[in-house]
Amino acid sequence: MGTREELGRVVMTACCTCPLRTQDSFAANQVDEIEFIQRLKKVERTAVAGEAVIREKGSPRELYTVLSGLAFRFRTLSDGRRQILNFLFPGDFVGLQERMTNESPHGVEALTDMRLCVFPSERLWDLYRAHPSLGYDITWLTAHEELIVDENLLSVGRRSALERIAMLLLHFYKRAESVGMGGPDGVLFPITQQHIADALGLSLVHTNKTLKRLQGLGLHEIANGRLRIGDLHGLQHLAEYHALPLRERPLI
Amino acid sequence: MGTREELGRVVMTACCTCPLRTQDSFAANQVDEIEFIQRLKKVERTAVAGEAVIREKGSPRELYTVLSGLAFRFRTLSDGRRQILNFLFPGDFVGLQERMTNESPHGVEALTDMRLCVFPSERLWDLYRAHPSLGYDITWLTAHEELIVDENLLSVGRRSALERIAMLLLHFYKRAESVGMGGPDGVLFPITQQHIADALGLSLVHTNKTLKRLQGLGLHEIANGRLRIGDLHGLQHLAEYHALPLRERPLI
DNA sequence: CGGGAAGTTGACGGGTCTCAATGGCCGTGG
DNA sequence: CCACGGCCATTGAGACCCGTCAACTTCCCG
Questions:
Q1: Looking at CA atoms only, how far is residue A36 from chain B in angstroms?
Q2: pTM for this structure?
Q3: pLDDT in tens, A224-252
Q4: What is the average pLDDT score of chain B?
Q5: How far is A167 from A136, CA to CA, in rounded Å?
Q6: pLDDT by residue (tens digit) across A107-152?
Q7: pLDDT digits over B98-127, tens only?
Q8: How far apart are CA A97 and CA B147, in angstroms?
Q9: Interchain contact B75–A (C-beta under 8 A)
Q10: C-alpha distances in Å from residue B136, one per residue of A76, A124, B16, B142
Q11: What SS3 class is residue B187?
Q12: B-chain residues near A75 (CB < 8 A)
């Protein structure tokens, strides 16, 4: 079956041939589990760069898995101050926290064009009942995202501006690489300095100056919307970032 | 059955008569679910104020539910800078993220004397298989904790020192109240200014001065280790904190 | 060629940090 | 009973990191 545009929705990438599943970093699933996911997945949704995937204060009815593209999760204060909570990569699962409240506590915005697998929120419980192993996987994904937010909170609370930026670049690079977005000239980096500022609790101006200073050290290079790491060890030392030796991650 | 001291462990509060379950904020469970939890819970552990419940970099083998008392979750950098990620109240579940790595990415330290229900980590999967509904609950608890960390990240990243402190006091108060720790003279507040500083990404000195300034506004009062809210509306406005209308929370 | 978004730069002010010192409270031990 | 030490709260002075304001440039795209 091919793909067909229809009201901003595309039907359909088959789960059994999901391009993400061919990657090492994702754990394998049983055939019946994949078939169940396939039945749960009614449609595929696309989003263009800059589009609001989930609106803050909206009432969400759907769960998503990022199939391709990048996004970020954020919250804003009424006067416009915005905090990016974490970036979303292919394989990330979105929408669980919204289910605990009537309105979504955060927004999700696309950084690039995206494809998302759409799951009806009200059938989440079916998944747990029919395939406890998949419920287990969803818990894993949730806990993993919290781990990342923890790390960001440590950065914003206790690292200096220079350390924060080193941390962000390094973390972004590693995550992008782990989902096969790496290449000889680095990874795609569709992120403005405003995004960096909002993710790190810094002002735009100070982000610019600090980023410039970091580039002067020659540890990395950002050009043509791509990020390349020159001195991985130096960045790790500066950011005091020790990548956790993660086990294979599940994929829903 | 009474309680008996034995190597720092107490045996045993029966789950079917768990004092937390009598509270409105916790959802009810089926009898067989509670019996299953009871079988999973091998022992009860106590911790004195200041004790390390989970050691950073340790290799955890157990999961905990806070039965009574308070604690906090934190991470530190090698030079000693510490970030408190969130506070733990009765009913909170601890230890999931540790399972994804070989060493615990964060520490947990008791703020007061505590009692904890201990579950063997390796039997978590049994729980999902035997009672998917409980697996669902664990996901809920994990997502809920992430929601709180999100909120803290927004505070630390984008709120001013005064707003952050207002936020912390308010949030702490509401959470304490929701688990029945409230009283006519406020809630127990076993937290030093150093804790507040570490939770909000501030220095101790600045925390002290800002807290003093906030107290001058008369919105709250801290005395004798207790926190009382004078002007709830004023604090909410200052912190721009809108308590999420949560549904009943599960309890494992 | 025009316009908007993103990046860059300088000046300046202020929020926050660090250093340093003091006082209160409390448990311990002489 | 009092001296002492340790933890916590408090306060002042000065420095610095970072935010704000305000340009200007570059780049892209129509």
A1: 16
A2: 0.94
A3: 899 999 999 999 999 999 877 777 899 99
A4: 92
A5: 30
A6: 999 999 999 999 999 999 999 999 999 999 999 999 999 999 999 9
A7: 888 888 999 999 999 999 999 999 999 999
A8: 7
A9: yes
A10: 29, 9, 20, 10
A11: strand
A12: 150-151, 154
Ordered DSSP codes for chain A:
---EEETTEEE---GGG-GGGGSTTBPP--HHHHHHHHHH--EEEEE-TT-EEE-TT----EEEEEEES-EEEEEE-TTS-EEEEEEE-TT-EE-TGGGGSSS-SSEEEESS-EEEEEEEGGGHHHHHHH-HHHHHHHHHHHHHHHHHHHHHHHHHHHS-HHHHHHHHHHHHHHHHHHTT---TT-EE----HHHHHHHHT--HHHHHHHHHHHHHTTSEEEETTEEEES-HHHHHHHHT-------PBP--
Token code pair at residue B168: 């912390």
Q: Which two tokens stand for residue A152?
A: 């960001």
Q: Which of residues 191-230 of B touch A (CB under 8 A)?
A: 200-201
Quickly give A232 CA vs D17 C1' distance in Å. Answer: 26
Residue labelled with tokens 């469970």: B29
Report which residue type is found at A163.
E
Q: Which nt sits closest to A206, CA to C1'? A: D18
By mean pLDDT, which of A240-249, B6-15, B184-193, B232-241 is the weakest? B6-15
How do the residues of chain B divide into helix, strand and coil, expressed in percent and rounded to 5? 40, 25, 35
Q: What is the DSSP letter of B248?
A: P
pLDDT in the model for residue A102: 82
The torsion angle over the Cα atoms of residues A60, A63, A68 and A73, rounded to 10 degrees, is 50
The verdict on a CB contact (< 8 Å) between B102 and A153 is no
Structure tokens belonging to residue A25? 């970093």
**Torsion sign, CA atoms A165, A167, B95, B59:** negative
**Residues 6+ away with beta carbon under 8 Å from A101:** B244, B245, B246
Q: Is A171 on the interface with B (CB under 8 A)?
A: no
pLDDT recorded at residue A173: 96
pLDDT of residue A247: 76
3-state secondary structure of B12: coil
Nearest to B100 among A154, A158, A247 (CB): A247
Which ranges of chain B would DSSP assign to H, the alpha helix? 31-40, 124-130, 132-158, 161-178, 193-200, 204-216, 232-239
**pLDDT tens digits for B68-93?**
999 999 999 999 999 999 999 999 99
Q: Is B152 on the interface with A (CB under 8 A)?
A: yes
Question: Is A142's Cβ below 8 Å from some Cβ in B?
Answer: yes
Banded model confidence at residue B179, pLDDT cuts 50, 70, 90: very high
Q: How many CB atoms lie within 10 A of CB B213?
A: 12
Task: For B213, list phi and psi in degrees, rounded to 5.
Answer: -65, -40
- The contacts of residue A138 (CB under 8 Å, 6+ apart) are A93, A96, A124, A127, A250, A252, B139
Q: Which of B52, B40, B47 is nearest to B67 (CA)?
A: B47
